[in-house]
Fold this protein.
Amino acid sequence: MEKQKDYSRIVMFIYILAILITLSVVFLMGLPFSQPSHTWISFGALMLAETAIYVLMTQYLSGGKKSRALIPGYLAFVAIAGLYLAVVIVIIIAMSLIYGATTFSYGLTHFIALALAGIMASLVTIYFRHAEQQDNDHSVTSLQWVPDMRGTLLSIKHDLEGWTNESSGGLTKGILELDEKVRYSDPSSHPTLTVTEENLLHEVRQLSSEISKLVSSPDANVDNQRLLRQIREISNLVTSRNQQLIQLKA
């Protein structure tokens, strides 16, 4: 916390120093064909660019750990603000060398530069908001994976409870163990595990369909070992998925 306050003080000191330098350069250093109205427009444009950079830096420092995940966004906005500042300086120097430049043309040039900076900032905002929305959608899907798996396994368990075949005991035990493993799985996920989770859900639903057919057909020929092997394979896939998630989060 103390380091954060120190960084904030440093940023504020740099900002105040930048304001003083701006005041000195704009009001004390004469440019060849600059007009009084140009001076105030120049000062306003420079202050706007410098303040934008200052606000971005203070927001980043006050954000803590949350800001670390948004570093690309902050860098993009600071780059735009820095580019706008450079363009403003170029405009001030270039327009001061043009004899007879009107206040309207001078102000319009600065307005165009500001508008372009605003467009770039808007595009960056749209991009990162879209990326954030994609992450949120994926998070909702991932959080739903565990309930969907457990719901299907519960359906299998209910089917087996009403089945009087001697093979039902081993299958029920396997389903309960699998359900326990899914229950304590991390409900969050990672984009690289989306296909794995979808395949697991597909395998469990296919298993549910096969057991449902067996339960509804008393005379069906039960391949108990095949079903138990299928349950073990799904259990191994769940274990693999959980291990991969731990590694990806490390």
